[in-house]
């Protein structure tokens, strides 16, 4: 077919050749592969280095992420770990001031133990962030929308500035919240896009996974070296589950987004300050619309009192109280005690991180049921 296919179509059609023409890519549950003969070893020898199920997944992701090189790893944090291993002591990294807690923890680790200089700044303030990116900056680490404050940064403007200052500066973008369905960071100037595939890409909360995408041969080479050297590549059965989950990405995320918008509007109608890029009240609503095709399904809001937030969360019946997001069922959490507990209370305060912030991630249930459950929880908690 010569026509350019839409992403929704690409998602469900996995190109793969396998011995028996199985319709579904088999899970090659083998650590080793026999050498044909000693002069021709074949493409696979050991699953740490490569596995056909992982290759099928990576090839499929390459199409979806419109990237020349894609690597699938055993978690989103493993992906970031592989990326930051290209840094050397003394290198300077500029990062956002609102990042997933585990990202912050890993950046703090490399700052403390690898002697890499890491500065955190408000990425919504273009003047500030660009003033911090200089010719000495080796890497920029961004998230947008951020987890959990839903801050939006201007990726193109930041990447253009970084590359002007230092053509070798590596702009790394965490696209977990938007997924390739709603945002194409590589097209906007990122050198490396990574995602926690544990979230939307898989969608079923039954695996941990991460992906790295880049169009640079040089960066891809470095990434593959570390994956092979450390064993960070995704396992065959997890590759198989991720391939299966990806097929319904568009259906799931579109429905989740629809629900999130309805919930966000309902919360706003209760005079609550809601952080969601699909609301016109979001301070970077226009910017987000300019660089993304959708607004995702994660939102957060404050109640003004940690005790009230805890009571609301405890009173929810449909929302599971868990970390993570992107699951087909709805989730609710208190980031300061859960996903962002690894950031010290002092740092959270410095970065204006509200302790009463509730993060909510819409699933694919009926929006009416989800709103009714929240309304009921508010009542039980004595809120509103
Ligand atoms: C935005 C974001 N990036 C990266 C990660 C790390 O991914 P993983 O949990 O798959 O290691 C998470 C959550 O854990 C996240 O929320
Ligand atoms: N105990 C975990 C917490 C994981 S939080 C996962 C997710 N990214 C989220 O934002 O909810 C840890 O220490 O990493």
TrEMBL record:
<keyword id="KW-0456">Lyase</keyword>
<protein>
    <recommendedName>
        <fullName>Cystathionine beta-lyase</fullName>
        <ecNumber>4.4.1.13</ecNumber>
    </recommendedName>
</protein>
<dbReference type="GO" id="GO:0005737">
    <property type="term" value="C:cytoplasm"/>
</dbReference>
<comment type="pathway">
    <text>Amino-acid biosynthesis; L-methionine biosynthesis via de novo pathway; L-homocysteine from L-cystathionine: step 1/1.</text>
</comment>
<feature type="modified residue" description="N6-(pyridoxal phosphate)lysine">
    <location>
        <position position="199"/>
    </location>
</feature>
<dbReference type="GO" id="GO:0030170">
    <property type="term" value="F:pyridoxal phosphate binding"/>
</dbReference>
<dbReference type="InterPro" id="IPR054542">
    <property type="entry name" value="Cys_met_metab_PP"/>
</dbReference>
<dbReference type="GO" id="GO:0019346">
    <property type="term" value="P:transsulfuration"/>
</dbReference>
<keyword id="KW-0486">Methionine biosynthesis</keyword>
<keyword id="KW-0028">Amino-acid biosynthesis</keyword>
<dbReference type="InterPro" id="IPR015421">
    <property type="entry name" value="PyrdxlP-dep_Trfase_major"/>
</dbReference>
<dbReference type="InterPro" id="IPR015424">
    <property type="entry name" value="PyrdxlP-dep_Trfase"/>
</dbReference>
<dbReference type="InterPro" id="IPR015422">
    <property type="entry name" value="PyrdxlP-dep_Trfase_small"/>
</dbReference>
<dbReference type="GO" id="GO:0047804">
    <property type="term" value="F:cysteine-S-conjugate beta-lyase activity"/>
</dbReference>
<dbReference type="InterPro" id="IPR000277">
    <property type="entry name" value="Cys/Met-Metab_PyrdxlP-dep_enz"/>
</dbReference>
<dbReference type="Pfam" id="PF01053">
    <property type="entry name" value="Cys_Met_Meta_PP"/>
</dbReference>
<dbReference type="GO" id="GO:0071266">
    <property type="term" value="P:'de novo' L-methionine biosynthetic process"/>
</dbReference>
<keyword id="KW-0663">Pyridoxal phosphate</keyword>
<comment type="similarity">
    <text>Belongs to the trans-sulfuration enzymes family.</text>
</comment>
<dbReference type="InterPro" id="IPR006238">
    <property type="entry name" value="Cys_b_lyase_euk"/>
</dbReference>
